[in-house]
Amino acid sequence: MSKVKPAPLPPDTNIGGYKIIRKVAAGGFGLVYLALDSEGQQVAVKEYLPSSLATRAPGELLPQVQPEKLSLYRLGLKSFFEEGRALAQISHPSVVSVLNFFRENETVYMVMNYLEGAALQDFIVTARDLKQSKVFRESTIRSLFDEILRGLRIVHQHKMLHLDIKPANIFITDDNKSVLIDFGAAREVLSKEGNFIRPMYTPGFAAPEMYRRDASMGPWTDIYAIGACIYACMQGYPPNEAPQRLEKDRIAVALARLRGVYSDNLIEVVEWCMSLDPLSRPQSVFALQKELSREGERRYTKLTVTEKVRMQFDTMVAETKKSVQVTPAAAKPK
Amino acid sequence: MKFSVFQISRKGGREKNEDRMGYCYTKASGLFLLADGMGGHPEGEVAAQIAMQAISAHYQSHAKPEIEDVKAFFNSAILAAHRQILFYASEKSLTDSPRTTLVAALVQGGCAHWVHCGDSRLYFVREGELLARTRDHSYLEQRKRLRGAGQEPELTNRNVLYTCLGSPTKPEYDMTGPVPLQQGDKILLCSDGLWGSLEDSDIVFHLAQKAVAIAAPDLVERALIKGGAHSDNVTLIAMEWETPDTFESTRGTISTDSIEDGVFASTVQAGWLDSSVDDLDDAGIERSIAEINEAIRRTSARKP
């Protein structure tokens, strides 16, 4: 595996009628640029250039692929096409849209609409640093995920799974829309080859079945990640990794700390989504949407004194063991 | 020189096709190749592909337009293929080397020559009779031979070979020829997916009855049906020798008379992309891009 990352295309390079402004992101699959189309509109251009299979010297346009990696490179290309093919069929404000697809420089490019704003991840980090009891308001969480779920539902209708839903892949635009980005379904295919260094899952957000080779994935796999994202919006931190949970599950305790801060219903929804058993989760986005958008008065059950004491004790034990991360805000009993 | 040729390879019930085949020819000679990458070792299909490429490259540099010394050519070609496989294994730091069988037939000067290593076979059929067949380098066929000398028969797995290309030991192989060819003679090269499912008598019968362009796919189909859901890869190349003065040509006939000196034609492909990604060639990439752009147009047209 090459350790050197492929160099990005230099600014002002013209490819397929688009002018590169600058690199905005890099992932295992390639690079994303901010570019301008022929009418001067901003677009995002994603370049297929897997860093583990291809190299490119600074200033060069053509990537180099070693002959023995060519087969994997083409396999990855197939997945890149799959991503494009799936996204091309979807037109939804909550799903990043593909505008064009073209071949140049011996690789392929996917043109998408350019989003201005920041990832949910950035908002969470900013919000939790304010050290308030609530990271996000409950109504904010509900409306944000209502939008995301509308998009995800369409994705699932097209027989596609996102498989990497996490706050870093939920984009909040400057005009307050949430958009699902980075459809890396390709990742899954590639890792089957066992040759990809990049992990196929994001710890904390990946459902337990993603750690197993044989398990069947489905909408419930993305739903687990949605639950984990809501959890992160409440706690300010990602939940424990699934394998850790299988050993000793602290999710229920961690969520109990939020009782009184968030409604019982929201806490229950998160627990439901994050069930370790895939069959115990909402089986479809629709089922989850129904629960999340339920109108009516929110019930808040505060912790009893006994529960608080038990929890404090639990925290002390946990901290000595140093096996679990507890946020200062959440650990402080209200 | 004039001959009809038909080659076909099917994956059967296996996950991938580790068989490779091909032929190449010049104005005055033709080379037919078939390799069956071995299971139980890594990357059998790569070994088979390397063998094909190494031998056809060797042929291209030595057939001017005929091979001067056929025995020397076979010796050096097989050794070159064997070494290239080992080199590939060491380059990739494989703990075990990829391995393959090989059978090759060379036709020139009105005669056929052949060589084989492992259990891919050559059948030589004249007027409905099996004139010659290679003997597999398997313990089973070795014992059959010894049994004639008074040895007790034993149950032996036909799949266990004692030689092949790519193993740490130098390959053993058998050469035959020159065998003078007559009008209508047929030569069949096949992998064990064919002869493992069909009796020799069936193979000879079908090959003798029909033109190669009909017999070849027919035989493969029969082997696949007999092999069932778990059928091995089935691959064959069938060639029929025609004397240059016959005017009636069979489908797929190749006449080398019109070929100019120095020209070399080959069906052996470079590169060893896995068969599952074979379809993504340049045309496949262009097609995918066109399809995606078409989908984008359709979707945006639907947009309110």
Descriptive report:
The complex is a heterodimer of chains A (334) and B (304). Helix content of chain A is 37%, strand content 16%. Chain A has 334 residues and is of the alpha+beta class. In chain A, a hairpin with a 4-residue loop joins strand 10 and strand 11. Chain A is elongated, with a radius of gyration of 21 Å. The model of chain A is unreliable at 185-199 and 321-334 (pLDDT under 50). Chain B folds into 2 domains: 2-269, PPM-type phosphatase domain (Phosphatase 2c, domain 1, 4-Layer Sandwich); 273-304. In chain B, strand 2 and strand 3 form a beta hairpin. The longest helix of chain B is centred in the N-terminal third of the chain and has 22 residues, at 70-91. Mean pLDDT of chain B is 85; it is low at 245-251 and 270-279.
The run of helices and strands of chain B is EEEHHEEEEHEEHHHEEEH
Integer tally of domains of chain A: 2
Q: Counting H and I runs of at least 4 residues, what is the number of helices of chain A?
A: 11
Tally of separate helices of chain B = 7
Average of the residue pLDDT scores of chain B: 85
Helix content of chain B: 25-40%
Q: Assign the CATH architecture of the largest domain in chain B.
A: 4-Layer Sandwich
The CA-CA distance between the termini of chain B, in Å, is 67 Å
- Oligomer state equals heterodimer
Largest sheet of chain B: 6 strands, antiparallel
Counted beta strands of chain B: 12
- Spatial order of strands in the largest sheet of chain B: 7-6-9-10-1-11
Any idea of the CATH class of the largest domain in chain B?
Alpha Beta
**In percent, how much strand structure appears in the residues of chain B?**
15-25%
Low-pLDDT residue intervals, each spanning 5 or more residues of chain B: 245-251, 270-279
State the largest interface.
A-B, 22 and 22 residues
Identify the CATH class of the largest domain in chain A: Mainly Alpha
Strand content of chain A: 15-25%
What's the shape of chain B? globular
